[in-house]
Amino acid sequence: MAELQEVQITEEKPLLPGQTPEAAKEAELAARILLDQGQTHSVETPYGSVTFTVYGTPKPKRPAILTYHDVGLNYKSCFQPLFQFEDMQEIIQNFVRVHVDAPGMEEGAPVFPLGYQYPSLDQLADMIPCVLQYLNFSTIIGVGVGAGAYILARYALNHPDTVEGLVLINIDPNAKGWMDWAAHKLTGLTSSIPEMILGHLFSQEELSGNSELIQKYRNIITHAPNLDNIELYWNSYNNRRDLNFERGGDITLRCPVMLVVGDQAPHEDAVECNSKLDPTQTSFLKMADSGGQPQLTQPGKLTEAFKYFLQGMGYMASSCMTRLSRSRTASLTSAASVDGNRSRSRTLSQSSESGTLSSGPPGHTMEVSC
Description:
This protein has 370 residues and is of the alpha/beta class. It is 38% helix and 16% strand. The chain has 13 helices and eleven strands. The strands form two sheets. The protein has a nine-stranded mixed sheet, with helices on both faces. A two-stranded antiparallel ribbon has the order 9-10. The longest helix has 17 residues, at 21-37.
């Protein structure tokens, strides 16, 4: 009689006691769906409660991507077109994401009571450590738009060791001057809060064109059930302090920074704060045909720029660039010739074969149009 041979079978994912393989598959599918939908949390801070949504799972030795939205929006209306873009999937598979909603801006948020003292932008920045502590995350790459860009920049100034990089879209680092205040007050006499916020988000050309995108966001803001909360966030933004960036001084961003602005953005002048930042760490991306909100109108171009930015930080070195990279060299060469008279500009050479980014000599801020 032949000897019986003992064969040991080890399950890759052991079943729970009493769990059938079918039930295990259903549980795994449910977990994946939950990760795709995101998990929403709220945490108490010294300045009130803040809500945030987490997508994916933490990756070893990689920072989280943390986003912060602009006035009049929440994380979905501000960032969904970007993070749902097809080419962005390669990025989000490699990083856990944390989307922070400013207090009272999350979906279904109750209206704050009359007389509620809304946090300043500096205080909103001071809420972020509570979020990271709750999640046990040590470092982030921040992606912010408008007021959210200011908040992340303020956070990076206060906590430089926890920020590996920043993508700041439409940032205005300056406090409002007297002329700005006068213009704001006059506008408030003739325009509603939704119209003023739309004028902050989009250019006058876009608003006059009244495209489907404009109609969609005008409807979102005008009929927002939390419009009173939005006005409080708007007021905090208009009362912001100057970030006081100093090139070569003590007050500066010490991580790689990509400043982004649309070619018709209301913030085009303000976003050129790159002249005050470390030129070896800062790039300035002016995006053509993108209006006031590049993450909404040109998610493909912004995704491609974000991939190059991450590669420059040492992540996604083998990332496959999309069709934009094949046309980038020609467009960048053209842009460099147009902007060649600017002392801060430099030509950017990018290889579509290797997906690498090589910059010119140090000491100049990158400024490109695409």
